[in-house]
Amino acid sequence: MKEIVLDTETTGLSVEDGHRIVEIGCIELDDLIPTQNTFHYYLNPERKVSDKALEVHGYSDEFLSDKSKFRDVVDEFLHFIENKKLIIHNASFDLSHLNNELKILKKGSIQNEIIDTLALARDKFPGSPISLDALCKRYRIDNTKRVKHTALIDCDLLSKVYINLIDQKEPTLNFQSLDQEKMNNENVNSTYYKKVVNPSNEEKINHSKYLKGYLKKNFF
User: Fold this and answer.
1) 148 falls in which pLDDT band (50, 70, 90)?
2) Given 19, 57, 97, 149, the catalytic residue
């Protein structure tokens, strides 16, 4: 089953105040494993970035001035998410901005099935911090690259948080179907692979002694 982890950055908090999207990032998951398919654009919001938003993501008016506008990428975006479940942290925020952009272009609102990881975390850890950073810390996910809020980095982190939230830390993989040479030659993301730990010589000796004692005690 394919899903889309989605995140946006904006000029400010509220669409009622005229704020717009400045970045969209999406990562596709196939049975919880990230594929090579991503969608990412910086966008010219056609308005100024608020001071508070600039502190969060660092995208200045000058940086965004020559970027595509939402209307330039909307068809590609809708095709990318078509018929796929959307995984979003604090979904009401991102959806309000996305649907506002679609409304401006006189297009229908997003009708995809939505999983809000903020709601999942709230149910699972009532009373505990449930920001993306807090969940990364809880699940020991390295978020040192997240100096600022950026859509693709946040999507990558959220994909790892998501599989932990639904208790699927190690999805089943069909290793026999993988081309071993391809795995060796390409930069394969092994975040989701089971870790194999080889026993030391001392552990092997102790295990052998244990087995001999167990067999002698129970069968001889």
Assistant:
1) confident
2) 149
